[in-house]
Amino acid sequence: MTTKTQPKHNTNFKNEVTEGLTSFPKYLSSKYFYDKKGDSLFQDIMAMPDYYLTGCEFEIISNHTQTIGELFRDRENGLDLIELGAGDGKKTKLLLKYMSENNFNFIYKPIDISENAVELLAKNLAVEMPALTVDAEVGEYFEVLERLKGFNKRKKVIMVLGSNIGNLKHPKAIDFLTKLKDSMLPDDLLFMGFDQKKEPQTILNAYNDPEGITAAFNKNILTRINRELGGNFNPEKFKHWEVYDPETGTAKSFLVATEAMDVTIEALQLTVHFDKWETIHTEISQKYDDKIVRWLAQESGLTIVSSFTDEQEYYKNYVFKK
Ligand code: AVJ
Fold first, then answer.
1. pLDDT class for 282, splitting at 50, 70, 90?
2. What is the pTM of this model?
3. How far away, in angstroms, is 213 Cα from ligand 1 center?
4. Would the N or C end of the chain have less CB density within 10 A of its end CB?
5. What whole-number distance in Å separates Cα of residue 289 and Cα of residue 162?
């Protein structure tokens, strides 16, 4: 197992925090939710009944393990299974087990922005599936994509589960999908999860739990600025607020200042003023339907090979080729 870290990360964090908190309206990127605390809060979110996404995708992969696995199967030289945003690998393990037990010659390459998540996963797999070759890597999607081009000797299957693409607005999603396509050869596949449009209240509830786990997750970005950049945010003075627009399919998270205040961030030599009820936009969680996914694929030069859904049709996993 090898783990490579991106040294650029802290500079990116500083620049993006400066950019976001000096803009109007203010924003921060959800990719910075995921430190040790954020990872563990996200684990808690995935275990909440209201956060249906995880259960639906687990249902899909467990009901169609063989069909999906056989789509992945290579004809000659073996295959690289590359997962972007691997997280804890609970859903992926279903496929890893199937492939291990059915004579696939493959290596598993999980890539995640969270060093902590990648290390935990690699350690866990070393115990649970000792025969599996795991080559883990830490990095951001867009950085890592460049390096995937060097992977072209064997068949490659790229997986992006959890509707992680939903954090990107459509133009960025097209950019991301296009780059994935550019890293693919004709036999390669992309297996990706897209949370579907549904009863708006169901979506809102997934991001608005009464216990405040999602609120803590959202506010963790402030805690992280405090710790890593010497900020003095008081997270209690911010309120988590979620909206869902059924027309665009976009769920949006905000942190709302409940009083006027000044916040100082030492490492940025920056003081940020908040008016009472001023917002920081922190995340989008885009919801999709077949039409939108077909459009995204077309714009990115990808073709949909097949798709799988759960009993309630809350969630879909699509298989793409170039
Ligand atoms: C991991 C990006 C798919 O947007 O649903 C969960 C993150 N944010 N609760 C999502 C998240 C609030 C999640 N993704």
1. very high
2. 0.94
3. 12
4. N
5. 16
